[in-house]
Amino acid sequence: MVKQEEKQIMSYEKEAIENIALEEGKEVKIGTLITNDTRRSLIELLQEFKDIFAWSYQDMPGLSTGIVVHRLPIRQECKPVQQKLRRMRPDIVLKIKDDVKKQFDAGFLQEVKYSEWVANIVPVPKKDGKVRMCVDYRDLNKASPKDNFPLPHIDTLVDNTAGYSLFSFMDGFSGYNQIKMHLEDMDKTTFITLWGTFCYKVMPFGLKNAGATYQRAMVNLFHDMMHNDIEVYVDDMIPKSQTEKEHIEVLRRLFLRLRKFQLKLNPAKCTFGARSGKLLGFVVSEKGIEVDSDKFRAIREKHNQGTWDEECQNAFEKVKQYLLNAPVLSPPSPDKPLILYLSVFSNSMGYVPGQHDESGKMEKAIYYLSKKFTDCEMRYSPIEKLYYALIWTTRRLRQVRYSLCKSEAIKGSAVADFLASRALEDYEPLNFDFSNEELMCIAATEDSPWKLNFDGASNAVGNRIGAVLVSPNGDHYPFTCKLDFDCTNNMAEYEACIMGLQAAIERGIKTLEVYGDSDLVIYQLRGEWETRDPKLINYRMVVLGLLREFDDITFNYLLRDENQMADALATLASMIKGNKEEEMRPIQMSVYEAPAHCCNIKEEEKDDNPWYQEILRYVRDRKYPEQVTENDKRTLRRLACDYVLDGEVLYKRRKDQVLLRCVDAVEAKLILEEVHEGVCGTHANGFTMVRQIMRFGYYWATMEGDCINYAKKCHKCQIYGDKIHVPPSHLHVMTFPWPFSMWGMDVIGPISPKASNGHRFIFIAIDDFTK
């Protein structure tokens, strides 16, 4: 009569489950941690209400259509979709045929013809080797509006269940199929098979609003018992009680309700009178809420990896040990104060709400919450992050009853004890000794930062840059420079910024506010915009290297009208009217022969050393030049990353990993002459020459500027070259006074294959007058 089966349903102890045979071949499960009297009463109750269980589809009449019916409204703009029959393996087709026959015999399906909506079957294999027949209702779900009837919050439902001493875990038999479809919407559930098209007479699985319809039906049937005697989540029902006697009464009331509305249970998935059990991914019991061991089974059974060392394995074992001994969470009690622990870091925050136990000495955790800050939230100040953490936590804990209470006066000794219990381990007391007692005063540091305005201009007049350093006292220090190499406007902006930063570093400025009217340069230096132009990547790297010399530096966008001083210096136009009280120092003019990111490569070859001598020495011997600064060393190390040494030949590595041989000034001059006006020279422009030289496999630092200047100074190009935006010769209107006065002739050939008469050329003559 009674069969016992060992099944671990509690994480801290094993509970035996009894299989009770109500009839031959019809069994239900009950827990064994109940008294004999309760066990006897529970078996009698199950025998009395054995008709509420369904052992097959034929035992399930379904809910009355007067209580609930499922509708499928369709948006007017959506057109019906008829899917074509998919190909399947023969063995899968036979299993689907058996499932379709079983549901057809149970009255769930009916044959339909000429349906506007047709879906396909999707076979899903089960663990036991069987196949679950699912229907692809994605097209139908897209056309159907969403039913906004809410499902219960899982965390709230688990909190309301935990803490009770006795549970029964019940599941509806083929839950969704107990609700019937509306007559007008049955044909919308049509699916296609090899044996015809069928539609559902009951609500099938896979529809968008099936869960909402089932939850609405359960609320209508058990609304007076929910949250008091039972908890309901779709087709899962959990009766709960504090005593065994009360549990029998709750089950009797629930069984009467199930019998009244003919709602059937699945005996294979029901357990009655258990002390604990799994609920929505958690294990609930009188002790509280525990983690389900099946959730981390993959981590628990994971074997050692070959690439791990002993330290990694020890850390992994600690993680597994923590999961095996995870803390038990307690549901919140409304009559006890809530204790909230907040931990706020630079990029994340964590919260642990808890309460005291019955003794009042031990704290129990309720939740473990965490959140990663967004990019915007990371920029909050520490106090703002703390406030935000408190606000976010209170919103997440709305289901917990909390209120603000006025605190009474706290004695000073209590505050001192509180601070002493939370002393910092690395605390160092303040040093009040003042070594120079004879000093009469200490100069206050300047709180106001220096300001830098920069601007660059590249136009037909030339390439010039300008920058202005403004001290906290209002003194202006202007700088201007002429760029003796071709560059774009954005390159000129970077040159101006670099010149200003270098001037600030020479003056020992540590706090600087940089203003520029180029939004591209400003936002690239901020890191908000990506630098994609290859010509600007090296400039940005130079600026980032200079930023290490500052303690605090910011980049701000400024309108051109507000950047008149730097703009005037860059364009060398008329100066704006300055304040006579402000000191204006003389402008020093200098000329740069190469871009800023190549400033440490000297093209002038002195002592028979090429321009790449310092790079060659560093790559070969890892030695720096004599009497160089740390900034120059960093620049040399950065440049050397792109060079490869093969014997005594130095190569430059391109972005596509192609190696270019570095040449000195003598070889560069010969290469320029040969490429531009040599045997195969085409007198190309400077940019084309650069591409040709790099295609030939040569490189030097200033090759782009040298190619442009060489093409500009070529005598033959100036004499015979076409003018820009001007045709090579003057255009004239050709007049044809009479027919056959002028002809246009052309010859085509030889053609292949030959014509049928053996001809291989075609001669064409066109009269320009009749054209």
UniProtKB/TrEMBL annotation:
Residues 105-284 form the Reverse transcriptase domain. Residues 446-575 form the RNase H type-1 domain. Residues 733-771 form the Integrase catalytic domain. GO terms for biological process: DNA integration. One of its GO terms (molecular function) is nucleic acid binding. SUPFAM superfamilies: DNA/RNA polymerases, Ribonuclease H-like. This is Uncharacterized protein. It comes from Gossypium anomalum.
